[in-house]
Amino acid sequence: MIERQLSNIEKNFREKKIQLAFNLISELKTKYPKNKRLDNFFNENKLKYIKKMKINSDQIQELYKKKNLNNIKIQIDLLLKYDPTNAYINSYLGEFFGKQKKFSKAQVFQEKAILSNPYDVIFYINLANTYKILGKLSLGKLFLEYALLIDEKNEFALLSYARIQFILKNYNKVLLIFEKLISVASNPNSFEYKVEFFERLIDLEKLNQAKKILSQMYIEKKNENLIKVLYLEGILKKTQKKYNEAKTIFKQCLEIDKKFVNAYIALASIYKNQNNFNECINILNKVIGIDSRNSKAFLELGIIYSHLGEIKEGISLLKNSLDIDPFSYETKFNLAQMQIYNKEFKEGWNNFQSRWLYHNFNSIRFKSSKKQLTSLNKFKNVLIWSEQGIGDQIMYGSIFSEISNLSKSVIVKFDKRLIKIFEGKHKNIKFVDNEAIIKEDQYDAHLPLGDLGYLFRKDLKSFKKVNFPYIDINPKISSKVKSTYYNQNKIIVGISWTSKNEEVGQNKSINLDNFLPILKLNNLTFLDLEYKNSDKDRNTLFENTGLKIQKFNYIDYFNDIIGVASVIESCDLIITCSNVNAHISGALGKKTFLLLPLGKGRLWNWNAEKNKSIWYPSVKIFQQTKENFTLIWFYVFI
Description:
Elements: H1 2-14, H2 18-31, H3 37-52, H4 57-65, H5 69-82, H6 87-99, H7 103-116, H8 121-133, H9 137-150, H10 155-167, H11 171-184, H12 187-203, H13 207-220, H14 226-239, H15 243-256, H16 261-273, H17 277-290, H18 295-307, H19 311-324, H20 329-341, H21 345-352, E1 371-372, E2 381-385, H22 390-396, H23 400-405, E3 409-414, H24 419-423, E4 429-433, E5 445-448, H25 451-456, H26 475-485, E6 491-496, H27 505-508, H28 516-519, E7 524-528, H29 535-545, H30 561-570, E8 573-577, H31 580-588, E9 592-596, E10 608-609, E11 612-613, E12 619-623, E13 625-627, E14 630-632, H32 634-637
Parallel strand pairs: 1-5, 2-3, 2-5, 3-4, 6-7, 6-8, 8-9, 9-12
Antiparallel strand pairs: 10-11, 13-14
Helix pairs in contact: 1-2, 6-7, 6-8, 7-8, 8-9, 8-10, 9-10, 10-11, 11-12, 12-13, 12-14, 13-14, 14-15, 14-16, 15-16, 16-17, 16-18, 17-18, 18-19, 19-20, 20-21, 22-31, 26-30, 30-31
């Protein structure tokens, strides 16, 4: 049975039917998991191919020793005369063009190598890595799976497979692959694999597993690895926000090696988190002085300058980082946000596509066999699916009418709390909850919500197509608010001062004490719009100052978004930090003062033209200021 199947596999390979061959190999592996005949089959056929070659392997090895391009070309031309389809020459050419960053050419030769000799596992690994660089991640993953069917313990294949699965956000698989890799690795390699495994665990905030791996590394470490293990312990402490302990460890690393740049970068990251930007910049410049090609230092420095509002400098530094490491999705994602903020829309929206490959971007891609919409030509029925937070979903909702005008039907799949505020204003669009199952026969194409920007917001002029308000309210609630708090001598001001954003909420929030210069003004009634329980904040304010902020307690401020919109609509003015209320108020066209922080909390979508939001013209932006790299709110409120 096995021999007959192997004969069929060989026949499929001869006929260039690679996928069919591997389907049969997979069946054999499943049916006879412990049988070694398949391993022998690949080794035997690989050796057969090498023996039949018209040139010998030593001649090919000579190519790798040559440095002069002209000599390489002469040698290749000569070898190809004797053996024009030689797999190993094609493999060499693939590697040659890859080093020159001509990856499409590299792909062509690497594919030829496999078609000529489908029995050598390294050909599949090399091609998979080229596919990955070209952004063909599904193909890269597939060819690594082929490689592992040939040799399930191949360390290069396992490591590449873990890395591509990480980019694809298949995190559970990543952990399993690393565990297998470490179990089969030779001792010298095992330590380096554990280091990378630890780093991925830190990325995924799986700190207990990271601790276990670190303990193993401490036991196994050799003297030359001491600084690495110490550094990783510092990274663990930093991730746990034990910043003082982490600083002490990184400084110990620098006592061992004054040029250990990773410790400097980690220290800079701590100072960034503590808003000590001056110290952070000094350290990162020191890193660049030690290693002028350190892409991470340029990335971190660019982010710092963007936090300080120096966007052009930030963009320049991030471009330097990308020149050094063109395949950093983190850098490209951060660059995209800066470029969109700086109104460089074409390049910014293009780079924004990288968000799906950056592990800290938490939205999940929608899976469908239907094509994803990439242009505004020839589509009838479209499904738009949500990504990012509720504020972003409201913001992109400003484009719903435009795509609806171009389509026969539109389905929008997003946060169920938003359905009521949108369905009344967009009667020709079907709005459904994120959890709803939409059959594929209901749409011709689909796209993520964020791609509406890429398709419809290519210049400043395009932002002016929106008709405000584009969300709805409940008039009964709005009337009740007005009747409760109306006073002919006072205007109603809705205020909110905190953000629940898990990543940057603390940076976007503002201490209520900062509002005192405004709260002390006469002829104003202040209405609390906080969507958390803010009783303590308001009571403390009243006890300390005698100033009272009212709260309309008849709605759920977290779940009842149309209720919140109705309260906002009843106000004469909104003063808010960067949170969902700012988006709701902007979408209603309500006069709004947005208090926008510098630092990590200043988000890219609050780009402005003449101090007004380009997404919401009724929103006037008051930017936090800085003095000597210290962020202060004082001048905004006086």
